[in-house]
């Protein structure tokens, strides 16, 4: 990935650290970052970065920072440059460091001490750009400094020798945060955290110590577990699915949920696997029920033997190192969020995720109760709204393209920028589908990209959230694409299946949808199978959905 | 000394056999002003020493750095 690193100080050493992971552009000259952002003929524009990182250092001895008024003016000038670039590149993620105005000034006792006003001014400006639709984020460098400590973070000597303000420790901390944010633009986060109960959500063993005996309270010793639960709840609210895998009697666990200091409730969990089976078995069951890969699962358990067994039998699962000093437990969970679950955007779909997966369990119950699949689907009261990708949906569509593995025929990881281009170009269309049923809305769940060449259409990408697989949605989607192509007067269509480690569920998708494929099947990862079809041979509407296609056909 | 040379080679990302005690600032392309900063930082960290700012321009060969660290 191409990452541009801009700064008002020397960041060559930081660039050296980032180059181990990315192709890094460094602006020529010293403190040229504003010109680079403003001048569309600059090297930055030439480089066409996929992410831009701006590291801003405050030299707190400098005159302009000693006088707050001048500092304010300076920050406002910075925001103009940031705004110009963000406006021209609404979909290129732009990361702007938080600043540390510091405490180097001489002040008499009654003087106003706070530098917060300046620090907040920059962040507020960045958030304002974000609210206008740019992909601008505050990169929490000051927060990284606070964790390391100001003394250890900076190196005055290097500042005087080379205009480079940080120590090795400081550079490492900056590199770590920067990599976390940049990585989040391309790598999908983990999806589900499965937690143990005894000695993890509370201290002690509920089956032995009873509700009076477990350690869980609003203050003192028991509050480390309560705080841990608060962190878990915060993760749940940011789209992480929580599940329980515990060796326990369900009745005992029920008691614990009645505990007055219990923060997490039943509906915070997508599933609860409570019993006496080996935990790796529970983990596999969970992955299957949620229709996600084991590599999207994370495991938190205080018992080293359980962690060892999980590592041995489910090596794809990430196992969190449980702290031996449980006063560290809340922070360890926060760290694991940052390392494993961090994402730049939280969409409405993320917020509703736990609820959607819980209702999925209800749907499965109804499926078992009803006779034929057709009856079941007709009774679900499904609606599908197809339309061309809208600008406000680009974040969600890129998220879907970034993390759909199973129902994804070509697995091209399109970025927001690329999707915007595809949606606006003359010779391509990005069609999306939003779905709902009587149990609730699933939101934007499918994306199909068409390219047009010489009166022929090509399906460049077709992907769907695994939540709606097996409901005839792909047939309905293709039936509507058929209508679209007929209106455009296009008679033939081609498509490709590219095998990955995970997309076996769609290896025969195009065969089912009326396409004719090359003779040789794609059996190994990386194998490609080309398909073609007459538009007339594509499937007709399934009749399972109430379909709307405003602005599409 | 050999350990020190290996350490410096690691920082500079060069083959340890390609440098020796006589290797100095700008005698190899890797050792520029930025590398000199980095080297000082890494040596301070690894050997738990403080190299004062006024010493930095003097300590521009592996031999001089070694003498400072071990002396």
What does this protein look like?
The complex is a heterodimer of chains A (553) and B (71). Chain A folds into three domains: 2-183, Rossmann fold (3-Layer(aba) Sandwich), CATH 3.40.50.1110; 192-343, Rossmann fold; 367-548, Aminopeptidase (3-Layer(aba) Sandwich). Helices cover 41% and strands 19% of the residues of chain A. Chain A has 23 helices and 18 strands. In chain A, the strands form three sheets. Chain A has an eight-stranded mixed sheet, with helices on both faces. Chain A has a five-stranded parallel sheet with strand order 2-1-3-4-5, with helices on both faces. In chain A, helix 13 links the parallel strand 7 and strand 8. In chain A, helix 7 crosses helix 10 (168-183) and helix 12 runs parallel beside helix 16 (329-341). Chain B is globular and about 30 Å long. Chain B has three helices and no strands. Chain B has a single domain, classed as ACP-like (Non-ribosomal Peptide Synthetase Peptidyl Carrier Protein, Chain A, Orthogonal Bundle). The chains are: A alpha/beta (553), B mainly alpha (71). At the A-B interface, helix 1 and helix 9 of A face helix 2 of B.
> Can you tell me the overall shape of chain B?
globular
Structural class of chain B: mainly alpha
State mean pLDDT of chain A (0 to 100 scale): 91
* CATH architecture call of chain B: Orthogonal Bundle
Query: Could you say how many structural domains of chain B there are in total?
Result: 1
CATH class of the largest domain in chain A: Alpha Beta
Mean pLDDT of chain B: 94
The quaternary structure here is heterodimer
Features of this protein?
heterodimer; A: 553 residues; alpha/beta; Rossmann fold; Aminopeptidase; 3 domains; 5-stranded parallel beta sheet; 23 helices; 41% helix; globular; B: 71 residues; mainly alpha; Non-ribosomal Peptide Synthetase Peptidyl Carrier Protein, Chain A; 3 helices; 49% helix; 0% strand
């Amino acid at each position: 990935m191409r990452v541009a690193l801009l700064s008002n100080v020397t960041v060559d050493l930081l660039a050296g650290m980032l180059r181990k992971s990315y192709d890094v552009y460094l602006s020529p000259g010293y403190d040229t970052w504003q010109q680079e952002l403003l001048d569309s003929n600059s090297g930055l524009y030439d480089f066409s970065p996929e992410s831009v990182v701006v590291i801003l250092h405050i030299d707190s001895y400098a005159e302009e920072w000693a006088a707050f008024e001048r500092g304010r003016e300076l920050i406002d000038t910075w925001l103009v440059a940031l705004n110009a670039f963000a406006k021209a590149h609404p979909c290129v993620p732009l990361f702007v460091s938080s600043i540390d105005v510091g405490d180097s000034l001489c002040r008499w006792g009654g003087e106003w001490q706070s530098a917060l006003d300046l620090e907040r001014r920059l962040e507020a400006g960045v958030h304002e750009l974000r609210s206008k639709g740019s992909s601008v984020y505050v990169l929490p460098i000051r927060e990284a400094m606070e964790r390391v400590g100001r003394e250890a973070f900076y190196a005055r000597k290097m500042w005087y020798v080379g205009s480079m303000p940080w120590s090795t420790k400081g550079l490492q901390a900056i590199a770590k945060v920067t990599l976390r944010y940049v990585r989040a633009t391309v790598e999908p986060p983990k999806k589900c955290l499965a937690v143990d109960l005894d000695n993890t959500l509370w201290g002690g063993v509920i089956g032995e110590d009873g509700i009076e005996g477990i350690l869980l309270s609003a203050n003192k010793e028991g509050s480390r577990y309560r705080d841990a639960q608060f962190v878990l709840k915060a993760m749940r609210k940011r789209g992480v699915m929580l599940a329980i895998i515990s060796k326990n009697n369900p009745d005992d666990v029920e008691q614990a949920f009645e505990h007055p200091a219990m923060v997490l409730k039943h509906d915070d969990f997508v599933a609860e696997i409570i019993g006496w089976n080996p935990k790796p078995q529970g983990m596999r069951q969970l992955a299957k029920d949620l229709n996600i890969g084991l590599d999207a699962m994370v495991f938190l358990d205080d018992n080293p033997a359980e962690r060892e067994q999980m590592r041995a039998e489910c090596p794809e699962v990430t196992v969190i190192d449980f702290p031996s000093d449980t006063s560290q437990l809340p922070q360890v969970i926060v760290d694991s969020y940052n390392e494993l679950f961090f994402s730049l955007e939280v969409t409405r779909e993320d917020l509703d995720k736990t609820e959607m997966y819980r209702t999925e369990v209800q749907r499965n119950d109804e499926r078992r109760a009803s006779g034929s699949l057709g009856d079941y689907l007709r009774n679900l009261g499904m609606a599908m709204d197809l339309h061309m990708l809208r600008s406000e949906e680009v974040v969600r569509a890129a998220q879907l393209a970034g993390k759909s593995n199973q129902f994804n025929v070509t697995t091209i990881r399109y970025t927001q920028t690329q999707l915007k281009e595809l949606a606006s170009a003359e010779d391509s269309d990005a069609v999306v589908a939003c779905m709902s049923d009587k149990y609730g809305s699933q939101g934007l769940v499918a994306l199909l990209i068409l390219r047009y060449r010489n009166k022929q259409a090509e399906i460049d990408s077709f992907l769907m959230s695994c939540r709606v697989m097996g409901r005839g949605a792909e047939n309905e989607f293709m039936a509507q694409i058929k209508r679209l192509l007929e209106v455009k007067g296009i008679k033939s269509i081609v498509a490709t299946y590219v095998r990955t480690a995970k997309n076996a569920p769609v290896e025969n998708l195009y065969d089912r949808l009326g396409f004719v494929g090359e003779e040789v099947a794609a059996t190994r990862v990386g194998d490609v199978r080309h398909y073609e079809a007459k538009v007339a041979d594509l499937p007709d509407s399934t009749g399972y959905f109430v379909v709307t296609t405003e602005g599409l056909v | 000394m050999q350990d020190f040379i290996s350490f410096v080679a690691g920082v500079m990302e060069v083959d340890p056999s390609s440098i020796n005690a006589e290797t100095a600032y700008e005698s190899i392309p890797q050792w520029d002003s930025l590398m000199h900063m980095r080297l000082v930082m890494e040596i301070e960290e690894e050997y738990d020493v403080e190299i004062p700012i006024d010493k930095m321009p003097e300590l521009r060969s592996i031999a001089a750095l070694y003498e400072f660290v071990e002396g």
